[in-house]
User: Fold this.
Amino acid sequence: MATAPVPLPGAFWLMGLGLAVLGFGRGKRSA
Assistant:
């Protein structure tokens, strides 16, 4: 992963949001 000049909290928030969206979409598709 490339290190970008972004605050750690912001990076974690973006990563968490992406994972949540992916997991939600995958779960909805499975169900």
Summary: The CA atoms of residues 9 and 17 lie 12 Å apart. The longest helix spans residues 8-30. The radius of gyration is 12 Å.
